[in-house]
Amino acid sequence: MTNDIYRQVIMDHYKNPQNKISSPLNDSDYIKREALNPSCGDMVTIYVKFINEQIIDIKFQGEGCSICCASASVMTNELNNLSKVVGLEKINQFANIIKDGVVDKEYDFEDGEAFVGVSKFPARFKCAYLSWDTVGKIIRELDE
Amino acid sequence: MFNIDKIKKDFTILKNNPTLTYLDSAATSLTPDVVIEAMNEYYYHYRATVHRSMYANGQKADEKYQASRETIAKFLNCQINEVIFTKSTTNALNLVANSLVTKLNGDDEILTSALEHHSTLLPFREFAKQKGLNTKYIPINKYGEITYDNFLNTVNAKTKIVVLHHVSNVLGDVVPIKKIAKYCQENNIITVFDGAQAITHEQIDVKEIGCDFYAFSGHKILGPTGIGVLYANNKIAKDLIFEYGGDMAHIVTIDDVTTKELPLKLEAGTPSIAEVIGIKAAIDYLMQYEFDDIARHIYELKIATINLMKEIPGIIIYNENTKNGIITFNFENIPTHDVLQELANENIAIRGGHMCNQLTLKYLGVNSVLRISFYIYNDLNDVKKLINGLKKAASQLAWML
Ligand SMILES: Cc1ncc(COP(=O)(O)O)c(C=O)c1O
Questions:
Q1: How many angstroms separate the CA atoms of B124 and A99, rounded?
Q2: What's the CA gap between B285 and B280, in Å, rounded?
Q3: Per-residue b/e over B196-229, b at no fewer than 16 CB within 10 Å?
Q4: pLDDT tens track for B15-71
Q5: Residues B175, B32 contacting (CB under 8 angstroms)
Q6: How many A from CA of B32 to the centre of ligand 1?
């Protein structure tokens, strides 16, 4: 039954996360923001580097459940090299994938599509959305 | 001993959820039909406010409200005017903290521990902080306990309030509150104990403990949500005000107010009447049994479960040696959330996360734990289903290792 949620892609990202660093990054080129969901043990820190309007690198550090960690790993690829505006749109789109289980082809998701199964487990929405939401907050704060 | 099949029949919620394995009673217990019926009777037959009605239903509501206070006074072995109804343990502790801390000043200190539930720690520490007062922590010994010796080593002439849990919601350790209270009585220190977990399986005699305040919630002892009880030593409580409002005020003039006597003085506003009636029904129901039997029953389930859990590789148990009905554990290298998901798929209800007790988790060196908790309606069949669920979870999640 949970195979609905643990797609191979998710398992792969959990076991071999991309752009994950093992200790805090001290680099002022990156904007850092903690993404904490302490009541369930998801504690990650997201680092984003921008050049002008463009995201040029994302890294994450921390620990959490499979969905949280795999989603953070996928996010670092899905949002990289997007403009802030397109990034925000894609974050919204990802929210739809994990909430309603629908994928909008316009946004060419790659591994992000694997999270459609989360829609059947509303309690996991927060886990899947945590890192994406955090990048959204970073972008919106920059634009304030 | 008691007959679990018979007890299960008292809980329609179990009949309505035939596949449910409910092992989360330390978070909130299930409610037997008698409690729901007592509250329904109030709503269906004699709904009215308390304290100030001339008409029959109001009189009856009053009698039932009063009867609940009397039952609880007997239950805790205190005077009737020392039973204060609140919304919850959290609410009770906030009210006590706020009203006591206001009276402190200078270098007065609060003494607590780093194993407290957020509801115990935060009201006192944060109200104290607002007044610029310090909160000190009793050191934890190497077994994760708060000992009387360590209390003695920390308490000092500045200590004005000691606030501690009686039984922990994470590890189930028991704090020696009776000895601590005795010392505090002799040294003019106010004691406040959080009984939210202890009350479920231990006969509490507040006079024997000798404390000043003792708080618990109805929903952990088969009662409704939205009702808490605070035992408040009337020698201290008579000088406190929790909240202003209706029912607590006696004479109100354009620039002054006098208050009613205890306990009404500390119960401002229309209370949770149905819930007060419900908590009495819950205590009456529970009192059919001896607390020793309840404690033994849940401990036996704990031991039986632990013995079976040991057959599952990778499980770390944090509180094997505490004598109670809770098991706190983790799967090595598998996040709690993933385990919870697998168990939820089998309709097995346990808790995972920080348990509103982040300091205890810090002590354990983890961000998150899993907790199984038993109560009177659980039996070995629940244990069997749980163990099967845990085994299945372990195999489903083996890919994570
Ligand atoms: C030890 C302890 N203290 C306080 C509380 C708070 O109880 P409530 O949420 O009913 O106010 C709980 C229960 O969650 C608890 O286990």
A1: 40
A2: 8
A3: bbbbbbbbbebeebbbbbbbbbbbbbbbbbbbbb
A4: 999 999 999 999 999 999 999 999 999 999 999 999 988 999 999 999 999 999 999
A5: no
A6: 20
Question: Both tokens of residue B125?
Answer: 């520490």
Does residue A103 have a pLDDT over 90? no
> What are the residues whose beta carbons fall under 8 Å from the beta carbon of B310, sequence distance 6 or more?
none
Cα distance between residue B162 and residue B164, in whole Å? 7
* pLDDT at A143 (0 to 100): 86
Tokens of B95: 């009210």
pLDDT recorded at residue B1: 63
pLDDT tens-digit readout, B120-160:
999 999 999 999 999 999 999 999 999 999 999 999 999 99
pLDDT in tens, B354-365: 999 999 999 999
- Cβ contacts of B372 within 8 Å, gap of 6 or more: B23, B305, B326, B327, B329, B350, B386
Q: How far apart are CA A48 and CA A69, in angstroms?
A: 16
Tell me how close the Cα of B131 comes to any Cα of chain A, in angstroms.
Answer: 28
Backbone angles phi, psi at B156, to 5 degrees: -150, -175
How many beta-carbon pairs below 8 A join chains A and B? 56
Cα gap B201→B296, rounded to integer Å: 9
CA distance B253 to B122: 36
Q: Give the DSSP letter string of B189-241.
A: -EEEEE-TTGGGTS---HHHHT-SEEEEEGGGTT--SS-EEEEE-HHHHTT--
Amino acid code (one letter) for B61: A
Regarding the beta carbon of B197 and ligand 1, being less than 6 Å apart is answered yes
Place of tokens 């819930």: B275
pLDDT tens per residue across span B92-110: 999 999 999 999 998 999 9
Rg of chain A over Cα atoms, rounded to whole angstroms, equals: 14
Question: Which of B338, B345, B353 has its CB closest to that of A39?
Answer: B353
* DSSP helix/strand/coil, B37: helix
How many other CB atoms are there within 10 angstroms of residue B258's CB atom? 10
CB B61 within 8 A of CB B198: no
Output the CA torsion sign for A18, A21, A25, A27: negative
Distances (CA, A) of B362 to A77, B22, B358: 33, 27, 6
Radius of gyration of chain B (CA): 22
Given a contact cutoff of 8 angstroms between Cβ atoms, the answer to whether A12 and B325 are in contact is: no
pLDDT surpassing 70 at residue A19? yes
Q: State the distance from the centre of ligand 1 to the C-alpha of B267, rounded, in angstroms.
A: 20
3-state helix, strand, coil in chain A (%, to 5): 50, 20, 25
pLDDT on residue A106: 77
pTM given for the model: 0.95
- How would residue A1 be classed by pLDDT, with cut points 50, 70 and 90? very low
The amino acid sitting at B80 is I
Cβ pair B337:A2 closer than 8 A: no
Q: Is B332 helix (H, G, I), strand (E, B) or coil?
A: coil
Using an 8 Å Cβ cutoff, are A71 and A131 in contact? yes
Q: What is the DSSP string of B312-334?
A: STTEEES-TTS-SSEEEEEETTB
